[in-house]
Amino acid sequence: MREAERAGQTQLEELAARLLPWFETHARDLPWRRDREPYHVWLSEVMLQQTRAEAVRDYYARFLAALPDIPALAAAEEGQLHKLWEGLGYYSRVRNLHRAAEEIVERHGGVFPSDYAAIRALPGVGDYTAGAVASICFEQPTPAVDGNVLRVLSRLTGDRRCVDAASTRRAWREGLAAVYPPGHCGDFTQALMELGATVCLPNGAPACAACPLADGCAAAEGDWRSLPVRLQKRPRRRETLTVFLLRCGTRWALRRRPARGLLAGLWEWPNVPGNLDPQAALDQAAAWGAAPTALERERRMEHVFTHVEWEMHGVYLQCREMPDRFVWVTADELEQEIALPTAFRKFWDETMKTEN
Ligand code: SF4
């Protein structure tokens, strides 16, 4: 072990003693912290990936009200799952939850497994989620190392290894596992997460004055901007598309996206690549067999995904025909049953605003 690593490990050894008392008095009251039921903790951890806690609260409550336990989740229909997830994004997460619930029912008699390896083997469960559930629900010394935790650890110890490297994450997992306090594994996991989410912040200055680790922190004096070290992100690809809101009487045209790729299998407004002018848009709708009669209005929207940005040109067309290449749904169905990804729902929300 190099000297810097030895110093870092010493800081890790002191972590629990410094963090646990702080967590006891500063932990936010979050719905998924009110019990340690594995289904609840697992669901919350999956929802919290890429999403802020405040935004997750309502989704979490709605999801559990509709699907209160693992057998109910396993038996749910895809349409219901997508509707419960609508707006959270990254829909593969809810599909994996469903597959994992089916597996828990089939292989574990509907009881969430308590063993780390068995949890890690469930569909969609990686090192982070397995570590979180095993430590929080089953008091095992299994770290949950995500971006928040890596930020805290890199800054605290001044470690400049790239946190996007699997080897760095593994090294932190091993280093942390060695210092887990017996009997407080779940609290230790949550305390680290909490510090990263509320004090050692990702955007803007960390609140070092309020941090229980400030004494001896390598970044507290001002080097926090350069830590953690990350890979340089590739710029997002920009794509332009013309999005059709085809209305025939009280029905609107939708179709399914391809089974693979971005927003796989979800509903979308019919669309084509490129930015069509009004006449070309009318021609396209006619070619689909929708017999458009009028262009009602146009609206431009943008949506940013992880790797791509969409520049969307929405065209609202009145039509006389309902070709069966599309599914024609009512406004009520759109509101209550159909899960439209946020990129497309923006047009619907705008329509509702305009018409009400
Ligand atoms: S002292 Fe500041 S930089 Fe160091 S861990 Fe705490 S919040 Fe982060």
Please describe what this structure looks like.
- With 356 residues, the chain is an alpha+beta fold.
- The protein folds into 2 domains: 3-226, Hypothetical protein, domain 2 (Endonuclease III, domain 1); 237-355, Nucleoside Triphosphate Pyrophosphohydrolase (Alpha-Beta Complex), CATH 3.90.79.10.
- 46% of the residues lie in helices and 15% in strands.
- It has 14 helices and 7 strands.
- The chain has helices at residues 3-26, 38-48, 53-66, 70-75, 78-85, 92-108, 116-120, 127-138, 147-157, 166-177, 185-198, 278-287, 331-336, 342-355; strands spanning 237-248, 251-256, 267-268, 271-273, 292-304, 308-319, 327-330.
- Strands 1, 2, 3, 4, 5, 6 and 7 form a 7-stranded mixed beta sheet that branches.
- Strand 1 and strand 2 form a beta hairpin.
- Helix 8 (127-138) crosses helix 11 (185-198) and helix 9 packs across helix 11.
- The longest helix is centred in the first third of the chain and has 24 residues, at 3-26.
- The site of iron/sulfur cluster has 15 residues, from helix 9.
Main features:
356 residues, alpha+beta, Endonuclease III, domain 1, Nucleoside Triphosphate Pyrophosphohydrolase, 2 domains, seven-stranded mixed beta sheet, elongated, binds iron/sulfur cluster
Listing every helix as H and every strand as E from the N terminus to the C terminus, the arrangement reads HHHHHHHHHHHEEEEHEEEHH
> In total, how many beta strands?
7
CATH architecture label name of the largest domain: Orthogonal Bundle
CATH class descriptor of the largest domain:
Mainly Alpha
Query: In this structure, how is the largest beta sheet organized?
Result: 7 strands, mixed
Q: Overall pLDDT, averaged?
A: 95
Ligands in the model, by name, code or SMILES, are: iron/sulfur cluster
CA radius of gyration is: 24 Å
Low-confidence stretches are none
The level of helicity is: 40-55%
Structural category:
alpha+beta
Euclidean distance between termini CA atoms:
67 Å
Overall tally of domains: 2
